Amino acid sequence: MKEIKIGLIGFGNIGTGVVNALNRNGELIEKRIGAKLLLKRIADVDTKRKRNADYDPSILTADADAILADPEIQIIIELVGGLEPARTFVEKALRAGKHVVTANKAMLANFGADLWQVAAQHNVALLFEASVGGGIPIIRALELGLTANRLLSVYGIVNGTCNYILTNMAEEHKAFDTVLAEAQAHGYAEPDPTFDIEGYDTAHKTAILASLAFQQDVRYADVYVEGITRIKPVDIEYARELGYTIKLLGIAKCDPRDGRVEVRVHPTLVGNSSLLAHVSGVYNGIMTVGDLVGRSMFYGRGAGPEPTASAVLSDVMAAAEAIAAGRSVSEHRLRIEPGQRHLKPIEELETAYYIRLVAEDRPGVMAKIGTVLGEHDISIGSMIQRGRHDSGRAEIIIVTHTAREKNLQAAITEIAKLPTTFEKPFVLRVEEEL
Fold it and tell me: Rounded CA gap, 315 and 12, in Å?
């Protein structure tokens, strides 16, 4: 039986999970691909700390080049994370004729099209199932299972930290800061949670999904991003009363009329009948819409050493099986040319909106607000108005019909300047068809 040698760069939590998964299911993997996987070398800046895994300490080195230059190593797993030196490692490996498996969403969202081109030029594969959705096989579904379709949209919940926070805010009626502290205590949120709660992690993943779904070079900088830090318990309660649930979504849609792609990340009101409304806790849920298959949903554990190791090893198996058979890796049917993209700016977005504002509680105020909205071609779909006891103020909740983003923002700016308005209105987008 052919032996395939592997190098691992990055021996943190995910790297440890990969080693444990190889130890646990190595024989099963061997039977399924007809080849034996041998982890020949591990590189990490920390060579002293003992990991919670069974491995030979003698194969651990601080020198990544020892792996990149080893002619026996045919597959490299990159789990360093971040942009550099990860990008350099991956490019060196590809140019050396080695297949690369990575979970690095930030690197791919910034340099993916460039690296995919390098891989194609050197007849090797850059595989990245673990970059989006943890153990959910969404990348392979886009690259293989759904490629007979013209994909119209891909969207969903791809950050477990934010979904945990929003779920607990809704179920336990707690404030954002309180639930964030609990998430950190449970290990669901990092000590510095900015990357998650400001939407950056979701934006990286959404850029990757959009690139594959629409075969355009969509990058992190192209994604409109809002996080969840301004969500208040009152917004969740009003959303519930109106028949919605608030979720942080990554949304990518392609306009079939002109091929322009909108790519955005923001808290969104989704109807309670939507499957995504029922994705709770740290779980992820991703929806695709194709012209032939219609709507499909992918659901599962979106993070953690074991689910991510599952995805990493599925890519390793694909590369190893091809090597053993003496053929090219057949995981890629989609081609993305660097620089080729046709984007729709956020100002042209058309959707419904949730508006929360505080204004004077007296006759004529709501009429003036309605007039401003009407002047910007925005109509009201539903409304809740509640006076604050003995304050002379009212909290007003408006859900609009479909309107254009540019018009909505202009109306909000004008409403905020009214002498009867006490604070800048808070806006969330509504997706009725998800």
Answer: 19
DSSP 253-315: EE-TTT--EEEEEEEEEEETTSGGGG--TTEEEEEEEETTTEEEEEEEE-SSHHHHHHHHHHH
Say if residue 22 is in the same domain as residue 127. yes
Q: What is the pLDDT of residue 187?
A: 86
The answer on 150 and 59 residing in a single domain is no
Residues 266 and 313 in one domain: no
Give the position of tokens 């408006």: 398
In tens, the pLDDT along 290-304 reads 999 999 999 999 889
C-alpha to C-alpha distances, 57 to 14, 39, 51, 97, 228, nearest whole angstrom: 18, 12, 10, 27, 43
Q: How far apart are CA 46 and CA 60, in angstroms?
A: 9
- Residue 90: CA count within 13 A, CB half-sphere: 32
Residue 333, in any domain of the structure: no
pLDDT tens digits for range 143-199: 999 999 999 999 999 999 999 999 999 999 999 999 999 999 988 889 999 999 999
> Would you call 292 exposed, middle or buried from its count of C-beta atoms within 10 A (0-12, 13-18, 19+)?
exposed
Residues 296 and 377 grouped into a single domain: no
Do residues 254 and 341 lie in contact, with contact meaning Cβ atoms separated by under 8 Å?
no
Q: In 3-state terms, what secondary structure has residue 104?
A: coil
Do the Cβ atoms of 21 and 77 come closer than 8 Å?
no
Number of folded domains in the chain?
A: 3
Q: Is residue 335 part of a domain?
A: no
Q: pLDDT grade, residue 331 (50/70/90)?
A: confident
247 and 230 inside one domain: yes
173 and 252 together in one domain: yes
- Helix/strand number for the chain, H first, E second: 13, 17
Q: Is the pLDDT of residue 363 over 90?
A: no
Same domain, 94 and 166: no
Q: Are residues 56 and 163 in the same domain?
A: no
Whole-angstrom CA distances from 356 to 333, 395, 396 are: 46, 7, 6
Alpha-carbon distance 270 to 276, whole Å?
A: 8
Enclosing domain of residue 381: 349-431
pLDDT computed for residue 390 by the predictor:
64
Q: List residues with catalytic annotation.
A: 205
- pTM for this entry: 0.95
